[in-house]
Amino acid sequence: xxxxxxxxxxxxxxxxxxxxxxxxxxxxxxxxxxxxxxxxxxxxxxxxxxxxxxxxxxxxxxxxxxxxxxxxxxxxxxxxxxxxxxxxxxxxxxxxxxxxxxxxxxxxxxxxxxxxxxxxxxxxxxxxxxxxxxxxxxxxxxxxxxxxxxxxxxxxxxxxxxxxxxxxxxxxxxxxxxxxxxxxxxxxxxxxxxxxxxxxxxxxxxxxxxxxxxxxxxxxxxxxxxxxxxxxxxxxxxxxxxxxxxxxxxxxxxxxxxxxx
Length: 261
What we know:
Elements: H1 3-31, H2 35-67, H3 72-105, H4 112-145, H5 157-167, H6 171-200, H7 204-227, H8 230-260
Helix pairs in contact: 1-4, 1-6, 2-3, 2-4, 3-6, 3-7, 4-6, 6-7, 6-8, 7-8
């Protein structure tokens, strides 16, 4: 067992929890908005996933097997597009419905500040859930690689492959996950502002754009992870995140000008 790997697991998990909370705290203090908007973002991410995740689990394998005769690459591409579209539809339509109905019912202003905090809560709770998975992986690593480990490992090639991956982990294998969470939070904030703009400006085309943008990111991530590896995947997500950050600043100025006028 490498203590540095364990420490990296712990630091990554801690930051995946602390960073979104710290960002939420800064937004609340800086703009005087209320924590309940962050909580609503976190809550409705979970609500959406309660429906979204079981649908993915039930349908992805039959779809993959159905298109597998056309080749593995084609099957991965079709599955990636399908999963991307599902994520885009569920999450962006979910955001839209919360803004359109719940915010107005609870008299929460449809402002850029609330959109910023809502997106932070939405992406933040996803980061926290991933942090729990990271901690689970850390415990598995300790159990398998610890001195004197008596853990029973089934004589199954798939299980053995997973065990070998854990045993050969280095800190550099863990750190990209933290970078991905920070990039994903940025994208969730961008999508939250884009869907907010769809409601504020009454343009459903912006909702469709948010769905397609989200779908493109997720589809690219799924496809590239299976065909090109983690570094290429993270590089492409980074480009999407840079574009998302640029959009956040642009939309921030546009909504600010609208509020003044």
